UniProtKB/TrEMBL annotation:
Names of required cofactors: pyridoxal 5'-phosphate
Provenance organism: Nguyenibacter vanlangensis
Keywords of the record: Aminotransferase, Biotin biosynthesis, Cytoplasm, Pyridoxal phosphate, S-adenosyl-L-methionine, Transferase
Function: Catalyzes the transfer of the alpha-amino group from S-adenosyl-L-methionine (SAM) to 7-keto-8-aminopelargonic acid (KAPA) to form 7,8-diaminopelargonic acid (DAPA). It is the only aminotransferase known to utilize SAM as an amino donor.
Pfam families (UniProt xref): Aminotran_3
UniProt site (Participates in the substrate recognition with KAPA and in a stacking interaction with the adenine ring of SAM): Y18
Subunit structure: Homodimer.
Enzyme Commission designation: 2.6.1.62
EC top class, as a word: transferase
Modified residue annotations for N6-(pyridoxal phosphate)lysine: K269
Originating gene: bioA
PANTHER family per record: ADENOSYLMETHIONINE-8-AMINO-7-OXONONANOATE AMINOTRANSFERASE (PTHR42684)
Domain of life: Bacteria
Known catalytic reactions: (8S)-8-amino-7-oxononanoate + S-adenosyl-L-methionine = S-adenosyl-4-methylsulfanyl-2-oxobutanoate + (7R,8S)-7,8-diammoniononanoate
Protein name (database record): Adenosylmethionine-8-amino-7-oxononanoate aminotransferase
Length: 421
């Protein structure tokens, strides 16, 4: 095998994510990142269209985050968060509660989006138990949703995406409904809640955009309906902003566009500016209050070893500095406008079903993708890193991408889709 020595030596020992290892086309050995570019071992450079699964919102290797990371690395890369606290985490918790709407003010740190959602589910279920209400252990979640890969979060994903039938008997059963987009789906949800509310701990939804489910958009009115529905039936509303948080949809948090405050919100992906794994589950005052008691069993029973890792929190604080000091939301608006103009011509290409843009998310949806491996390879030949999945080719670039780099991404998509594999 050609390429660096570590490639041939290590590849036979690696198990790749969501990959049929028998037929996988070889992954690209990567040696460096800078700005919106990924450098491969053979010297080629790709313009990155997806910011490493939606994390690198300021581009790679931003000097401000790098400096903060190096200073924290020298002082205290990690210390346990049981019985000890530290400045990076406490400063970050305070800043997140200042940025989030309403009284979302209690921050529980973890290290991945899936675990942040797991913690939100545990919080919601235990909220009722602590208040002496039994039987409210199920969630209402939505078709097209994605909340993570762990067993508890698979159970609240889209039934097919979450492989509910394959893992039947292993996954807890929740209520999976259609998003309330029209009268029929609103009525169906009303009926579901009228019948089952006594079993429901919380409604869980990704606000405005269902990301991994296919970049499916819904509007702010749907979210306002869910807030109202939850209030009328006295259940909690959890917003999973692991993907939408930190500017991606055009506002710092998607829930701002609906003017609603969830009872619990989850954050990760762009939280540390795409550097070190970090996640947070943030609860409102009344949720936290249900855990205050003389009964030791009323404490939140969760505590990951690396929770509130100081290095990750330092990176997240530096990332928030950049949101405060640089015009990120203006950049998001400009990226959206450019993608709208430059992806729109795809609408007339053969096999294109839809073109849609929200914030810094641009999507070309196809009827079908015939040869996915070939499509991916053709995009790389164009000098771009774009990862189509299901039936969509999408862009979620860093907010610091230049108009020229973005034009290279949209141009590559137009070129490849004009002559689809
Ligand atoms: C990616 C994602 C998750 C899972 O995050 P991981 O860090 O991969 O565990 C959960 N919810 C949403 C909305 C996501 O996009």
């Amino acid at each position: 095998m050609s390429g660096p020595d570590w490639l041939g030596a290590g590849l036979p020992h690696i198990w790749l994510p969501y990959t049929q290892m028998r037929t996988v086309s070889p992954p690209l050995p990567t040696v460096a990142t800078e700005g919106c570019r990924i450098r491969l071992a053979d010297g080629r450079e790709l313009v990155d269209g997806i910011a490493s699964w939606w994390t690198a919102c300021h581009g790679y290797n931003h000097p401000h985050i790098r400096q903060a990371a190096m200073a924290q690395l020298a002082r205290m890369p990690h210390v346990m968060f049981g019985g000890l606290v530290h400045e990076p985490a406490l400063r970050l918790a305070r800043r997140l509660s200042d940025l989030l709407p309403g009284d979302l003010e209690r921050v529980f740190f973890t290290d991945s989006g899936s675990v942040a959602v797991e913690v939100a589910i545990k919080m919601a279920v235990q909220y009722w138990l602590n208040r002496g209400v039994r039987g409210r252990s199920r969630l209402v979640a939505f078709r097209g949703g994605y909340h993570g890969d762990t067993l508890a979060t698979m159970a609240v994903c889209d039934p097919e995406e979450g492989m509910h039938s394959l893992f039947a008997g292993v996954l807890p059963e929740h209520f999976i409904a259609d998003l309330p987009r029209d009268d029929a789906s609103r009525d169906a949800l009303e009926r579901l809640m009228a019948r089952e509310a006594g079993q429901v701990a919380a409604i869980l939804v990704e606000p405005l955009v269902q990301g991994a489910g296919g970049m499916l958009f819904h509007d702010a009115a749907s979210l306002r309906f869910l807030r109202d529905l939850a209030d009328r039936h006295g259940v909690l509303l959890i917003l999973d902003e692991v993907f939408t948080g930190f500017g991606r949809t055009g506002s710092l948090f998607a829930c701002e566009q609906a003017g609603i405050v969830p009872d619990i919100i989850t954050l990760s992906k762009a939280l540390s500016g795409g550097t070190v794994p970090l996640a947070a589950t943030v609860a409102r005052r009344h949720v936290f209050a249900a855990f205050l008691s003389d009964d030791p069993l009323h404490a939140l029973m969760h505590g990951p070893t690396f929770m509130a890792n100081p290095l990750a929190c330092a990176c997240a604080n530096a990332s928030l500095d950049l949101f405060a000091g640089e015009p990120r939301l203006e950049q998001v608006a400009a990226i959206g406008a450019q993608m709208r103009a430059e992806l729109e011509p795809c609408r007339h290409l053969p096999g294109v079903r839809d073109v849609r843009v929200m914030g810094a998310i641009g999507v070309v949806e196809l009827e079908r993708i015939g040869d996915m491996n070939r499509l991916k390879a053709r995009l790389v030949e164009q000098g771009v890193w774009v990862r189509p999945f299901r039936t969509i080719v999408y862009l979620t670039p860093s907010f610091t991408i230049t108009p020229g780099e973005l034009a290279k991404l949209t141009g590559a998509i137009r070129t490849v889709l004009a002559d689809p594999p």
